[in-house]
């Protein structure tokens, strides 16, 4: 069953994936979206695609930060 995920939750999930998987997060999230689409979970696939984009944004922000 597809359950809508709000914007804040999408950012939280994206952040979690980036923390756990680093630069590989977008690829891992995309694979999850593909799997959901194969299973007919269209809303879930769309949600994970949005989460993937957010993870890419988080990673691009991190590239400009000073450590």
What key attributes describe this structure?
3 helices; mainly alpha; DUF6961; 67 residues
Could you walk me through the main structural features you see in this protein, from its secondary elements to its overall organization?
This protein has one domain (7-62). 76% of the residues lie in helices and 0% in strands. The protein has helices at 7-21, 25-38, 42-63. Helix 2 (25-38) runs antiparallel to helix 3 (42-63).
Quick structural summary:
By secondary structure, the protein is an all-alpha fold. It contains 3 helices and no strands.
- Tally of helical runs: 3
- Major sheet size, sense and barrel closure: none
Note poorly predicted spans: none
Cα Rg: 12 Å
Q: N- to C-terminal separation?
A: 42 Å
Structural class: mainly alpha
Give the total of domains. Answer: 1
- Percent range of helical residues: over 70%
Pfam family, one: DUF6961
Secondary structure layout plus pairing:
Blueprint: H1 7-21, H2 25-38, H3 42-63
């Amino acid at each position: 069953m597809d359950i809508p995920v709000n914007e804040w939750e999408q950012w939280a999930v994206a952040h979690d994936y980036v923390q756990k998987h680093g630069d590989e997060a977008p690829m891992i999230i995309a694979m999850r979206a593909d799997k959901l689409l194969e299973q007919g979970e269209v809303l879930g696939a769309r949600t994970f695609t949005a989460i993937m984009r957010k993870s890419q944004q988080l990673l691009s922000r991190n590239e400009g930060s000073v450590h």
